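discrete fold record:
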Amino acid sequence: MSEVRVIRAADLSTQTSQTSGMHRTTAVSGDTVGSKTLWVGRVTLVPSARSGPHHHGNCESVICVTSGRIRLRYGDRLQESIEAGPGDYIYVPPRVIHQEINLSPSEPIDSIVIRDSMVNVVVNVVLPDDIVLER
């Protein structure tokens, strides 16, 4: 029989893959609750920060923005972009290279992220020098 669990905010694990400019904590994973196909965590991006370019391997991801306003650049050359705010959901398909950017100089972005993997798969990417990373 499976066990129903509450993961308290104070118990989120910092032992997870990171990307420059972001801070990820894990709530649900294979390590924390024994999940088989799910990773759920909290991701914050400080004011005016941007993440390094990355993708999440074969995982589908959903970003639920709970506060702040985010720009997500994506594509092999980060040539596309969308913006989202509180209450918006962003779907990121497997292997899509992307970069999160906090549009505010004073407010952090807080979000809940869900992936279809029991671990937080993060593949940080080095892009060619001719690709300008937004600052």
Observations:
- The chain has a mean pLDDT of 90.
- The two ends are 50 Å apart (CA to CA).
- The chain has one helix and ten strands.
